[in-house]
Amino acid sequence: MLLSLSNVPRDYAWGSHTLLAELEGRAPSAAPEAEVWFGDHPGDPADVAGDGTLDAVTGGTLPYLLKLLAAASPLSIQVHPTVEQARAGWERETGLSLDDPARNYRDANHKPELIVALSERFESLSGLRPVAETLRLLEIVGSSADPLRARLSGDGDVLRDAIGWLLSGEAQGDVDAIAAAVGQASETESGEWADALRAVAGIADAYPGDPGVVVALLMNHVVLSRGEGVFLKAGLLHAYISGLGVEIMAASDNVLRGGLTPKRIDVPELLSILDTTPGAVPVLRPSTGGAITEYPVEVPDFALRRVTLAGEPLTMPVRGPAMVLATAGDTAVSGADAVSRAVPVGHAVLATEDESSLTLSGTGEVFIATPGSLPEERERARHADEAS
After folding, report:
1. What is annotated as the active site (predicted)?
2. What is the pTM (predicted TM-score) of this model?
3. Is pLDDT of 385 > 60?
4. Domain 295-387 part of CATH 3.30.70.2740
5. First-to-last CA distance in the chain?
């Protein structure tokens, strides 16, 4: 069975007035449009054409949440827990109502996520930069960064120590001085750190006085081109800065924030789940010359493929429940009943578990979301590849 889905954009302050409107070919919106949710999460279930909301149809069993995300200004710096951390946190907070501002865990699930750029440029902060590289960057910032440099030059888990210090409130004077120095450096620097400095200076303009500005200085500045993606595993500090993308995640609302937000920041809990292992986060680049791009991520909750259509119908097997989201052109999908259903840009179609294959037609671009594979299935696939 195929279900046509739509939803109303959520109007978070960081959203764009134009990105989603341009994608769908309509006039700019009066309010910021930040996210469109295609899933059965109770926070904002998708609308099913002629049949209420998706959670009423599925019972809230969809393992993933698919979104369109449109950022005109930076989102909060954040991190998500592992399954074990989420379950423990959920148990600890049993006595708190779901809308209690002191609650950190909204459910008992992890929240790995993948973002794929739809705009020609999508900026993000993804993971923590190696300390030696950040120390080189701070040389450009100058003496205002000496207190941070001293923290990073010590022994032990210096990144955890530095982030805790920045978010504690004790470092406010240093935060302001470092942010001002970054702004000055961004106006003159043209070397390897120019893009990163400009990004952090822009964040400082958007969030003056926020300690997350200096936390951002510790993170990898990643720029995606259209079709490129980044997978963000549990414990990885990240923030989206600007751009339009397709985002898929486990069906969870567990977020621990680390700056760039007026919302509550629980510093001890953030530090307890934060993975401070530094290093670059791999960019998932689309293959060339094929209609289908895979974005391989080893989680059971979701898998994502991008399909470009040039007029010839394409039939492909799917693991249900599968969702088809249109992002360009004029496309349609059909299942076992062979009835073609149009998928307008910015809308989706859900194929229930009884559909084992889908036929895509038209010209344009769609993304197909499905549940991911289990570890034992991935192991069998590896052995099969090796044998062949």
Report:
1. 257
2. 0.93
3. no
4. no
5. 36
